[in-house]
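A reminder from the course coordinator: this example appears on the midterm review sheet, so study it carefully.

Given structure:
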């Protein structure tokens, strides 16, 4: 029997992105923080102990789950090579122009033969509309809940619920960011375009990396987020 191609959109839990927030199909909300890294091995034994203790206190201070993940991807040097091309064309000294051309060729060849990976750390802060009853702590809730809101709910009520949930989520984000600051890390909330860029590159690892607003602009704002980030189909 021939394999049937299934649209990958059906396997993606993302409904939309708005107000720097990821909205899942089950009504849950997610904020994504990009976090700076620290080379733990280069720290002294005393510094390592302080960092470990601060991280332990940070985790113990939370009554909800968080997800930490590392995204490794091939470094995109196209913009850097374009700057070298511009610098070469503007240079009037023939010797310097030749040196710039040689350096550009070396960089392009080296990166082409030896892919350089950039690593980015993210922390996902969740909020599920329905928590587990009976006084269970939020840390027991799953990152992707099973609750799905009724589509028959009036749009005005849906917006009211969204803003209410968003307020709670932002409070959680503040707690997480304060905790990360205590460890000596810097964190920033991803905006809508950066979230789209992140998931496009996650779902299209073999594609040429796309950056910035071009991803959303190419696909049109009226299209669903899953149509933007997902590959066309997968074999089942």
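Designed residues:
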């Amino acid at each position: 029997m021939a394999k049937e191609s299934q649209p990958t959109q059906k396997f993606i839990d993302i409904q939309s992105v708005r107000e720097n927030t990821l909205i899942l199909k089950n009504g849950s909300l997610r904020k994504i923080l990009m976090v700076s890294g620290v080379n733990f091995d280069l720290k002294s034994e005393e510094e390592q102990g302080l960092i470990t203790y601060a991280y332990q206190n940070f985790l113990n201070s939370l009554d909800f789950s968080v997800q930490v993940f590392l995204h490794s991807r091939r470094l995109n040097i196209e913009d850097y090579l374009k700057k070298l091309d511009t610098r070469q064309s503007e240079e009037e000294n023939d010797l310097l122009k030749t040196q710039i051309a040689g350096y550009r060729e070396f960089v392009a060849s080296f990166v082409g033969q030896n892919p350089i990976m950039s690593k980015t750390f993210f922390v996902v802060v969740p909020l599920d509309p329905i928590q587990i009853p009976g006084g269970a702590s939020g840390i027991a809730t799953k990152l992707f809940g099973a609750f799905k809101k009724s589509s028959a709910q009036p749009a005005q009520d849906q917006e009211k619920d969204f803003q209410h949930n968003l307020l709670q989520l932002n409070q959680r984000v503040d707690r997480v960011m304060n905790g990360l600051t205590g460890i000596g890390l810097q964190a920033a909330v991803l905006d809508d375009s950066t979230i789209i860029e992140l998931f496009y590159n996650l779902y299209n690892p073999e594609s040429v990396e796309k950056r910035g607003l071009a991803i959303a602009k190419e696909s049109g704002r009226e299209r669903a987020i899953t149509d933007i980030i997902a590959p066309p189909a997968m074999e089942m």
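Residues 5-74+121-235 form one domain. The longest strand covers residues 117-127.
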